[in-house]
Amino acid sequence: MKKLMLVLALIASPAFAVNPDEVLDDPALEARARDISAGLRCVVCRGENIDESNAAIARDLRLLVRERLLAGDSNDEAVAFIVDRYGEYVLMKPTASGANVLLWWAGPALFLTAAIGAGFYLRRRSRSAEPAEALTEDEKSRLDELLNG
């Protein structure tokens, strides 16, 4: 029973795509590489970071990260090198600077504009609605006849 539980736990755990031949000998450098890889998006899979992806480009990016670390780059320098080469799309969390500021603020700005427009529309609509006139005595008697049969 314990073996079955262990097998099920291993199946349910996330499968990382890092191959044994990619792992660095230095545990500190490998930890840095994993940390950097967690923040880089696979350009094929889109929703996965490069550690989780089995795509060939993800493997190339993992190897590139490790090459940069072996060359002596800091984490920021390795990420900057990859962003320079592949663009900001590879970042799982894009920066909030430059042209990205427009993207970060476009959603809230459009929501606020729509809310203000809806408020003006509802206010104008409620002012223009005329109150219903009361029924005349003839209309009341006709309604009673129709309802009572």
Summarize the structure in words.
The chain is an all-alpha fold. It has two domains: 11-90, Orthogonal Bundle (Helicase, Ruva Protein, domain 3), CATH 1.10.8.640; 96-129. Helix content is 61%, strand content 0%. The longest helix is centred in the C-terminal third of the chain and has 29 residues, at 100-128. The protein is elongated and about 100 Å long. Residues 1-17 form the signal peptide. The chain crosses the membrane at residues 102-122. Belongs to the CcmH/CycL/Ccl2/NrfF family.
- Low-pLDDT parts are 8-15
Please give the radius of gyration in angstroms.
31 Å
How far from one another are the termini? Answer: 77 Å
Q: Label the CATH architecture of the largest domain.
A: Orthogonal Bundle
Q: Find the CATH topology of the largest domain.
A: Helicase, Ruva Protein, domain 3
What is the name of the CATH class of the largest domain?
Mainly Alpha
Mean pLDDT: 83
Which outline best applies?
Answer: elongated
CATH superfamily of the largest domain: Cytochrome C biogenesis protein
Overall structural class, as computed from helix and strand content, comes to mainly alpha
Q: In total, how many beta strands?
A: 0
Strand content: under 5%
Q: How many domain units?
A: 2
Instruction: List the secondary-structure elements in sequence, H or E.
Output: HHHHHH
